Amino acid sequence: MENNAALDEARDPLVIAENWLDAGRQVAIATVVQTWGSAPRPVGSHLVIDAEGNFEGSVSGGCVEGAVVTEAMEVLESGKARMLEFGVADETAIQVGLSCGGTIKVYVERLG
């Protein structure tokens, strides 16, 4: 059991972000702040992204991660946080794959 707990902690996006920051990497964090309908990740889920485009965690189970990583790279460059919204009523719904229904709001900010 202890091995599983250690593995879970090693995969925790917040732990990974801390390790990346300690290594001198620029890091952004994306946090699910609101969902409606069939969003696959709950509020509070995280995705961390570094300046090289590496990422860990999930905000949507694969539906919008690519779009969030792209936005996070811009947040790292500008230093300005962003609120992102994806869903079936949004013109990007087909592009990011939320065609099953629902909406998701994700707040992206730079850490450190």
TrEMBL record:
InterPro entries: MoCofactor_Util/Proc, XdhC_CoxI. It holds the Pfam family XdhC_CoxI. Residues 20-87 form the XdhC- CoxI domain. It comes from the Bacteria. This is XdhC family protein. It comes from Aquamicrobium soli. The lineage of its organism: Bacteria, Pseudomonadati, Pseudomonadota, Alphaproteobacteria, Hyphomicrobiales.
